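Hi there. Long-time user, first ticket. I'm pasting a complex I've been working with (about 914 residues overall). I'd like to know whether the download I got is complete or cut off, because the file seemed smaller than I expected. Thanks.
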Amino acid sequence: MHTRTFVAAAVGLGLVTLSACGSSDDDGSAAESKTVTLVSHDSWAVSKNVLADFEKSSGYQVKVLKDGDAGQAVNKAILTKDNPQGDVFFGVDNTLLSRALDNGLFQSYEAKGADQVLPAYRADQKKHRVTPVDTGDICVNYDKAYFSAHKLTPPASFDDLLKPAYKNLLVTENAATSSPGLGFLLGTAAEYGDDGWADYWKKLKANGVKVVDGWEQAYNEEFSGSAGGKKAGADRPLVVSYASSPPAEVIYGDPKPATAPTGVSTGTCFRQVEYAGLLSNAANPEGGKALLDFLLTKEFQQDMPLNMFVYPVREGAAVPAEFTKYGPQAEDPETLDPAKIADNRDDWVKSWTSLVLK
Amino acid sequence: MDLARTEVTGRAARAGNAARLGLMAVPVAFFAVFFAYPVAAIVARGLGSDGGWRFGRLWDVAAQSDIRHVLWFTTWQALASTALTLLVALPAAYVFARLEFPGKQVLRAVVTVPFVLPTVVVGTAFLALVGRGGLLDDLWGVRLDTTVWAILLAHVFFNYAVVVRTVGGLWSQLDPRQEEAARMLGASRLTAWRTVTLPALGPAVAAATLMVFLFTFTSFGVVQILGGPTFSTLEVEIYRQTSEIFDLSTAAVLTIVQFLAVGAILAVHARTVRRRESALRLVDASVTARRPRGAGQWALLAGVLGTIAVLLVLPLAVLAQRSLDAPGFAYYRALTSDDGNVFLVPPIDAIGNSLEYAVTATAIAVAVGGLAAASLTRRDAGRLVRGFDALLMLPLGVSAVTVGFGFLIALDEPPLDLRGTWILVPLAQALVGIPFVVRTMLPVLRAVDQRLREAAAVLGASPWRVWREVDLPMVWRALLVAAGFAFAVSLGEFGATVFIARPDNPTLPVAVARLLGRAGELNYGQAMALSTILMVVCVVALLVLERLRTDRTGEL
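Hi, the file is complete. Here it is re-exported in full:
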């Protein structure tokens, strides 16, 4: 008897679930004026109390939808631009910005506090379709223990990476599938120009650069300076990662070390800026605007670094002590005009793939 | 008398046909709405342009030598992986079905664990076997990472349980007395096995082969992580084109190519299986297994256990060991702390989320898959029904990223605006679970002697009552195995989950991936700890299912 009851219950539950999903269709849009929906990538994070402050002061409930990694999230937002999933999209960076703008993803809105954004990070000044929110550098990280044990100076620049002393030491990510991998490629394109970058990569390949598919493998499996790498006996003391990785190694150390176990080669950095914007056809544009204003407030800007391991873009927003102490921000990182990236990205990645991977 | 009987069974058969079509309605509707429509929508978006169709793209893309290379690699690695998996796992299917040894139940659950672990974690674990400083490196200085061997071995690691469970499940219910009778009549052990057992196992072996081939043909994470960026399957290429390069027309063409390839495989499978299936005498599994006798059986048992220890348990043990590699369970304690970072909830809550999703997905998969299997039971069914059978397998042959993107543009308007709702995740997981339910239940349902059903009908039972009184008691075990599979698959399901926008309640695999995506020892350690918890949850869930079964054997 029990067995049959169980089966009946299981089948019944299934059918109920099915019919329930058929009737729950208007959940999303019901309380639209009170709910504002943020669509973002998987790395989005904010402290609970900071978000609660916004909800209290603005009267809006914030619903967050995470939609895959940064590239996917942007592509999906473009795919649904006529009938968007939310009101605000956060997380398009300068490498993909023009894809979003050219496809008409955003509508104009100049957020309160836009004049407080450091000039270097401002973009789309005429139409104000996007609001810069955070910035970070993609740089080569080095394993301090390795270099002191081998009495070797860590590389400081792109040129250094070609030196025989650093042969077979660097691991990077596939530029076609990984955002830091792409950032590093763009960094070399900025440094050596349209004609020079391919030659640089030929030499880098000759010097034994290893390419893996994603940051997780590069950092956790191949890089000898990470916790995972140590456990796996990794043998690459140089990895393409973020300038904020050394502070993370301290903050998430167990026990917390006095100094970061890894360092940053400050001459190998490419600067990423992430933007947010009010989605075209947003159901709740007023709520979206309030949310964009919130992203530029000092409270959010100062909360952000330890949640997403990025730097604020607002003038005068304090950077956490861990960041300044353990991870110096590059003074003169490589940058590229988003329009130039848009024109060349796909071709560069294609040539890079046949040059380095084949 | 005879005439009356024919008429009764005839009427019962007609009623049965109508009932079967009724049963098919639910799964057909489910697949139309949650699979065919979304996939068609995203493919159409890729190939359509301003009112016209760009079928020329099909040819352009197919003509690229890169793409042909990808197709070739996809095919041969899948064939090699499937052959290797069968070679390694079929002896294990026998051992689990026919031999009795201590710890068998636990071990059967353990070998299923790789199947449910997200590839991002398994990649890490598997490198401990074949990578730098791994076992092979230690013993013989052999490193297989970034070679095709790592991919093939990892496919065996993943799919071992598919063969053990699908084939072993049926094998354990075959009446051993038939083989014994053959031997009594003078057949050699091999002849008896070849002529009695092997034909009976045919459909289950074919089903397992099909599933392993489909899984390896559409392999994604394993190829990406262990093969490095130089190896690419169609699935990986579809992901890159959709998700990174955003070239939807190339992705659409590749989706069609993969679709056709999978369709062809399914057609071949349907043909071979139909010729082989026959009614079997099924008995309770608990009476068929015996303690090993003779050197041969002991050697076989030792060989299988040794393989499991090295190939399956060792990589899993490495994960567990790394999760404990800090004094005082520090990584586990960190899981419960709510520091406001990375997650808005403590990572430990991911367990609850995962269980909720998995239970819902299992319920959907068992309901839809069970109805589908019931409607497909009769072997002499028409072409339409057979086509439907193949259709049910197609979700295994379509990329999760295609389904995820398809959901986004297809299910975006009332009454089906499900975007951003939690139900999308279990729905997508159920799509992957349904083929398991169907494939596990169908061979057993079809093995039920049709005359039993007819007898019941003659005695006046309605089709529903026939199913309840005849079919259900006999397929109860298969149903549980199927539910276990569906549950385990949704527990570890990663692909569809990350490709679907969802509110922030991460499942275990998503939480693991998120932790691994950050620098810092505690993040890495917590990822290992959560993976270990995922393994344990999976083992416990599977053990509970097995226990449920043995408590009820009296009903068979």
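A couple of notes from our side: Strands of chain A lie at 35-40, 61-66, 88-93, 106-107, 131-143, 170-173, 210-212, 238-242, 262-279, 311-312. Chain A has a mean pLDDT of 88.
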